[in-house]
Design brief:
mainly alpha
Length: 190
Amino acid sequence: MDPKKFYIISKQIHKLLRNDDTINEIGWRTIANRIYYYLYHIARNDLSEKLHQDPFFIDEGLLGDKFSHHKKVIRFYEHTSNLLRRNRYTDEADYADENKDILEFYLSIREVADYNIGSSFQSLNGSFKNFPFDIDNYSIDFENPSEIWERLLTSDPPIAAEILLKNNDNIISGLKNIKREDVIKLIRRL
């Protein structure tokens, strides 16, 4: 399945919200869920494809196992940032940090949307210093999100997807200068 379908369904739900304000909270919570999975699958699929190719040739079985859970993809970016910094590829490490923050930000929205249903107003936990979009605060009202939150959940995700893909290219470029066995060791530790 094409991960963009997660985004397409979220846009359709957004259209429904314009015509029926009785479903605002569940609609926005569902959009938050679908947007996270859109971005996660975009990043994961791209990483898997790139790491399966030259010069890495990492087995699809290992990648499928290690990238089967979203926390492991986030951890991949974190560990990759550390590996790149140790080898003085700081720009590439910054790209890994940005991807980590994008996924962690949208994951935290998804988690409060899915699990904290006692109140429509929710605060996010975390520090997203490398997140590329402006945020007025880290609290969202799922019943009536601010313009910034609406943008973060509707028009910004395709931009975030482009950033993830561009950053993956830069991260892989840096990893090509690292010993293949160090990259494999990093993946096995996820």
